[in-house]
Amino acid sequence: MTQAAVSADHPVFERIKSEIDEQDVVLFMKGTPVFPQCGFSAAVVQILSQMDVKFKGVNVLDDTDVREGIKHYSNWPTIPQLYVRGEFVGGCDIIREMFENGELQQFLVDKGIQQAS
Amino acid sequence: MTVADTIREKLTRAFSPAVLEIIDESHLHAGHVGARTEGESHFRVHMTSAAFDGVSRIERQRQVHKVLADELAGPIHALALKIDSA
């Protein structure tokens, strides 16, 4: 399928793409970083905050199109979803696992988001 | 058949896992959005299978999501996955 066809099927894809392009680290989540409304979203917010990573939270509860669209855009059926420099990194399980074994820190260093400690 | 039984049957058929643990955590979420009054809405699955050798984390989860697409679109509100290769 061409990109144009995909965009025509899902007009919201362009809005999602601009969100992802706008900032290095973007978290699609339920609620806001200050007031997450789901335990899985809260867990990822906590990890990013603990690592002192600057990120933008996109509250999918504010926008049904984004809430459904992001699932198709990422080919991922659940929220939260973390994007780093336009790349889909994973949902809560993957982020937590990467954080616990140190891979997330290395990944962010490799992407130039964080300094090596 | 319960939702847990369906998950077990579908994952067993698709991945022949060496380890398959399905934990119903719905009681931890009773009363909040997405929790069904009849329960069986929030699950945690630990699975180990040789089918995941050389498969990335994201792809492993995508394969599981695909096998359980009907359940994810229906009764399952949350599915935490820990998937290892054998």
Q: What does this protein structure show overall?
A:
The complex is a heterodimer of chains A (117) and B (86). Chain A is of the alpha+beta class and 117 residues long. Chain A has one domain (3-110): Glutaredoxin (3-Layer(aba) Sandwich), CATH 3.40.30. Helix content of chain A is 50%, strand content 15%. Chain A has helices at residues 3-9, 12-22, 39-50, 64-74, 92-100, 103-110, and strands at 25-29, 56-59, 81-84, 87-90. Chain A has a four-stranded mixed beta sheet with strand order 2-1-3-4, with helices on both faces. In chain A, strand 3 and strand 4 form a beta hairpin. In chain A, helix 2 (12-22) crosses helix 4. Chain A is globular, with a radius of gyration of 14 Å. Chain A starts with a helix and ends in a 7-residue tail after the last helix. Chain B is an alpha+beta fold and 86 residues long. Chain B has one domain (3-85): BolA-like (GMP Synthetase, Chain A, domain 3), CATH 3.30.300. Helices cover 34% and strands 26% of the residues of chain B. Chain B contains three helices and three strands, in the order H-E-E-H-H-E. Chain B has a three-stranded mixed beta sheet. Chain A binds chain B through residues 37, 40, 75-78, 88, 90-94, 97-98, and chain B through 33, 57-58, 61-62, 65, 69, 72, 78-82.
Features of the shown structure:
heterodimer; A: 117 residues; alpha+beta; Glutaredoxin; 4-stranded mixed sheet; 50% helix; globular; B: 86 residues; GMP Synthetase, Chain A, domain 3; 3-stranded mixed sheet; 3 helices; 34% helix; 26% strand
Question: Could you estimate the helical fraction of the residues of chain B in percent?
Answer: 25-40%
Q: How many domains make up the 3D coordinates of chain A?
A: 1
Unreliable spans of chain B: none
Neighbour order of strands in the largest sheet of chain A:
2-1-3-4
* CATH architecture term of chain A: 3-Layer(aba) Sandwich
CATH topology of chain A: Glutaredoxin
In the CATH scheme, the class of chain B would be Alpha Beta
